[in-house]
Amino acid sequence: MLQQDDPAINEIVFRHRPLDEAVRRDIARGRPFGGATGPLPFSRRYDIALAPEPPSQVVDGLRRVKTKRQADRAASAADRTEALPGYARRALPVRIDCPAEVRAQFGSHPKFANRLREAGIVDSPREYIEEWKPAESVLSVLELGPRLFPGREAEALDVLGPLVRRELGGNVEAWAVLEQLLPTFTGTVPELVVTCGAIAHA
To answer: Origin, by domain of life (predicted)?
Structure first.
């Protein structure tokens, strides 16, 4: 969502209490997370104290970075030149502001993928739709797509559209089954859609 560089979305994310303090500082300062040129406007009506930023040469250097995209490229290049130490490689990927390029360099081991999932890190709408559960929770997030992540909405439709048309289509009974199963269904969205289609056609 932060990659949209939408001030209204940034304020919604800022109010999310579990958010990392470093990310909150960047939002409050108007730091772009996508391709926009900063600083982005940020409302000062939120009387929320931010944790002090630890002084260091690294932080001083990062302050000279004008956009999040520049920081992403710099971090990715640094890791390729000299691999980050073990703790950093474990802690960095589960931060929401970790550069996608750096996260991709850390491998694809199932344990690594599981840690990302536990931290709520999603690589794409396809991954979210096909692997995350329960279906009701996933659909409630996708419903916000036009407002919170309009740039990725088309990807979600590309995944769901053909499946829904094939399994449910205009079958009123299939949609009725979906309405009944949705609140308690523990599987993924594709599993839900296929199940409803199968029940309706049985």
So the answer is: Bacteria
What are the Cα distances from residue 179, in Å, to 32, 36, 115?
40, 41, 32
CA distance 56 to 30: 21
Helix, strand, or coil here: 8?
Answer: helix
| Measured distance CA(94)–CA(73) in Å, rounded | 18
| One-character DSSP codes across 127-162 | HHHHH-S-HHHHHHHHTTHHHH-GGGHHHHHHHHHH
Helices (H) and strands (E) in the chain, counts: 13, 0
Whole-angstrom distance, CA of residue 42 vs CA of residue 7? 6
CA distance 199 to 23: 46
Residue scoring higher pLDDT (82 or 171)? 171
| Nearest CA among 103, 77, 75 for reference residue 90 | 103
pLDDT in tens, 115-158: 887 777 887 889 889 989 999 999 998 988 888 788 888 999 99
